[in-house]
């Protein structure tokens, strides 16, 4: 009777889901040649093909789908077991993966991560800086800090703070715009934004969209170079020494910041230790995200 090992089953599942050797390899952290070898090994053991090979990818046959469904159930059991075991670990050592937006780490969180690694040198901290929504159920990260209106309901979360956004530009642009709002004003937009917010158009009827960029870091650099006014979260605008807020335009609501983890990891000592640094800092520094005066030390 044919025997299929777990590595081969996982490779079949990944290939069914992606239909590409390279993408299946990325999902598994393997080379595409290793995935191909494992699939071939499973087919040799079974005595029949599981995929049709085409120049543009692998097309799964019915038996591959059947195997993939079983492998997916097995994978969920494995992931759940590993999460539960990790959630019971009392040791302040070993791996911990944290994910947060890159610019939030760059402007404010790096000193907190330095404090954490200084306190707990035996923790092997990995930081995934980006805006991708990583799958915490698959342990792509253990703890996630996200800017979102609707975090995943399956996760345990704490709403760290609400946010507001405002309009920023170089001091000369700010001065000219405040002094003569009827004159043309250059503006910068994120690539997906159709137009300038109405609160700005109401004050500045002659707005010229100078450029659209698809990256917030690039937008900030363009604003600092004097290309125009940029709307962004307060924590970003206030962190720039080259930009000034337009005082005559109101701040507007922005997506809140959440701290999230899978419920199975709620008792993990390393995760709780990092939370114990992040949560008080946000409580003490709400002004960076909402405006107003810093909170006095109690």
Short note summarizing the structure:
The chain is an alpha/beta fold and 298 residues long. The protein has helices at 6-18, 21-28, 32-46, 62-87, 102-119, 171-179, 198-201, 216-224, 234-237, 269-284, 287-290, and strands spanning 51-54, 57-60, 94-100, 123-129, 143-147, 155-169, 185-190, 207-213, 230-233, 244-245, 252-262.
Can you walk me through this structure?
It comes from Tritonibacter litoralis. Keywords: DNA-binding, Transcription, Transcription regulation. This protein has 298 residues and is α/β, with parallel strands linked by helices. The protein has 3 domains: 6-87, Winged helix-like DNA-binding domain superfamily/Winged helix DNA-binding domain (Arc Repressor Mutant, subunit A), CATH 1.10.10.10; 95-160 and 259-290, D-Maltodextrin-Binding Protein, domain 2 (3-Layer(aba) Sandwich); 164-254, Periplasmic binding protein-like II (D-Maltodextrin-Binding Protein, domain 2). The protein has helices spanning 6-18, 21-28, 32-46, 62-87, 102-119, 171-179, 198-201, 216-224, 234-237, 269-284, 287-290; strands at residues 51-54, 57-60, 94-100, 123-129, 143-147, 155-169, 185-190, 207-213, 230-233, 244-245, 252-262. The longest helix has 26 residues, at 62-87. The chain is globular. The chain starts with 5 loop residues before the first helix and ends in an 8-residue tail after the last helix. The mean pLDDT is 89.
SSE ordering: HHHEEHEHEEEHEHEHEHEEHH
Average pLDDT taken over every residue: 89
Number of domains: 3
- CATH topology (fold) name of the largest domain: D-Maltodextrin-Binding Protein, domain 2
Distance linking N and C termini: 71 Å
Residues in helices, as a percent range: 40-55%
Estimated structural class = alpha/beta
Sheet with the most strands?
7 strands, mixed
* Count of beta strands: 11
CATH-defined architecture of the largest domain: 3-Layer(aba) Sandwich
Give the CATH H-level superfamily of the largest domain: Periplasmic binding protein-like II
**Stretches with pLDDT under 50, minimum 5 residues:** none
CATH class descriptor name of the largest domain: Alpha Beta
Contiguous helical run count: 11
Overall outline = globular
Work out the radius of gyration. 25 Å
Strand content: 15-25%
């Amino acid at each position: 009777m044919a025997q299929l090992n777990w590595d081969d089953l996982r490779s079949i599942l990944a290939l069914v889901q992606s239909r590409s050797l390279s993408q299946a390899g990325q999902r598994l952290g393997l080379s595409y040649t290793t995935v191909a070898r494992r699939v071939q090994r499973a087919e040799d053991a079974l005595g029949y093909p599981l995929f049709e090979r085409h120049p543009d990818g692998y097309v799964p046959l019915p038996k591959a789908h059947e195997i993939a469904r079983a492998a997916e159930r097995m994978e969920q059991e494995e992931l759940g077991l590993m999460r539960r075991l990790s959630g019971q670990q009392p040791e302040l050592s070993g791996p911990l993966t944290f994910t947060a937006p890159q610019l939030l780490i760059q402007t404010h969180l790096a000193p907190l991560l330095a404090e954490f690694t200084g306190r707990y040198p035996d923790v092997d901290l990995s930081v995934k800086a980006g805006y991708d929504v990583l799958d915490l159920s698959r342990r792509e990260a253990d703890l996630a800090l996200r800017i979102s209106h609707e975090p995943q309901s399956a996760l345990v979360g704490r709403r760290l703070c609400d946010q507001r956004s405002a309009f920023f530009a170089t001091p000369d642009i700010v001065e000219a715009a405040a002094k003569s709002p009827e004159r043309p004003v250059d503006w910068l937009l994120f690539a997906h934004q159709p137009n300038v917010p109405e609160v700005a158009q109401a004050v500045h009827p002659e707005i010229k969209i100078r450029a659209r960029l698809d990256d917030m870091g690039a937008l900030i650099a363009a604003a600092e170079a004097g290309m125009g006014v940029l709307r962004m979260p307060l924590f970003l605008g206030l962190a720039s020494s080259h930009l000034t807020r337009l005082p005559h335009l109101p701040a507007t609501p922005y997506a809140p910041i959440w701290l999230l983890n899978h419920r199975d990891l709620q008792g993990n000592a390393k995760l709780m230790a990092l939370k114990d640094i992040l949560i008080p800092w946000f409580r003490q520094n709400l002004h960076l995200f909402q405006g107003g005066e810093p909170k006095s030390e109690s």
